[in-house]
Amino acid sequence: MPFQSWRLAPLESRSRTKDFGREQLTLLRKLFPKPEWRQSVVDYIRAEARPVDKFGHQPRLYALASQIGKGMEFDDDVLFASAWMHDLGVFVGHRPADPAELARWDHVPYTIARTRELLLAWGFPPAKLDAVASAIASHQVHNDPIETEAILLRDADILEQLGAVGALRAIAKVGRDSRYPTFSSVVPVLQNAVDYLPPKLRLRSARLLAAERVQQLVSFIAAIHAEAGQLLH
Asked: According to the model, what pLDDT value does residue 14 have?
């Protein structure tokens, strides 16, 4: 099954750069300065993230993981690389185009394999590749990570499914994901996030951040029911 090949051309040469804006690119470069491999990661994910709204998840995830890990000892190279690369296999052009194959698709093995190749090409420390792979392998809710970087990544990924951002990410799938053809089909996803995800958080710092996000999501769901009742489609 062919996948879109990766490219390392500078962002300025990419046709989609104009959609992001020069000011945002400048900000990202200030937030994520040298080593050079970090800029290569940002540039690549910016170019490959499709649908394009998926790009915001990566910088938010790294920022959240860094926030909840404040005061803890962890390898920032591993956290940065895993946070930015962890969803590569869900992007259009990297995942299967055939609906039946997509329904069976486990993006994690593909993501880990491509991440190893890409990071090596960009000059990432080879000795840290296994730690990046481990963090990516255990970043989902059902996983039980061991390493600190993996725990931070998983907790941050759970937080990204809560609050206003969690609502936006879920609603964005309506009409473009075959699982969610209508608004009413995505409301259970939001409710499940409220009921199921908070107890899965491992770190106290993450649970503290989750409290407000859960309340925001609860209020949003209640507003949907109050305004639409049985008429939400």
From this structure: 45
The model's pLDDT over 26-78, given as tens digits with 9 standing for 90+, comes to: 666 556 555 799 999 999 999 999 999 899 999 999 999 999 999 999 999 99
Phi first, then psi: give them for residue 61, nearest 5 degrees: -65, -45
The answer to whether residues 221 and 187 touch, using CB atoms and an 8 Å cutoff, is yes
Structure tokens at 39: 């800029």
**Residue 19: pLDDT band with limits 50, 70, 90:** low
Which residues, in sequence order, are CB contacts of 144 under 8 Å at separation 6+? Answer: 138
Is the separation of the CB atoms in 183 and 175 below 8 Å?
A: no
- The whole-angstrom separation of Cα 231 and Cα 60 is 34
Name which of 74, 89, 72, 210 is nearest 150 in CA terms: 74
Q: What angle do CA 56, 39, 20 make, to 5 degrees?
A: 40
CA gap 134, 115 in Å, rounded: 12
